Amino acid sequence: MKNLILILLCLGCVFLVFYFSWLPNPDIGLKSYFPKWLGHWTNANPNLRTAVPFVFLGILSEIWVCKHSNRIGKRFWILLLLGVIVTLAEVGQLYLPKRHFDWRDIAWGITGSVVGVLIAVALSKVIQRYREF
Prior knowledge:
With 133 residues, the chain is mainly α. The protein is built from five helices and no strands. 74% of the residues lie in helices and 0% in strands.
């Protein structure tokens, strides 16, 4: 059941990455369902906003990988997959008139993925040490 929840959360994050990446207008603050303060932040930080969902994807992926053997090998494949996802999101923007492909967005997405994995690894080590006491 926990794996199913993790998979659904990951798929939801991936859906949001593609949805917001492929909106015709990059100003997502104009959407009525999007909070104004968050819209202002995303417009002020166009590359950094790419990293944010990938931090969550990195954390969720590490939680899933943490349960299995060969964690380092699986981390490599997960980070590669997240890199492919951010690249596909950027390539899709080539076909939208008001959007553009940006290598920096790919770098920010990969950076966010690595940061998410590192956060989850650090938290799991803290939890593990806490359990030892």
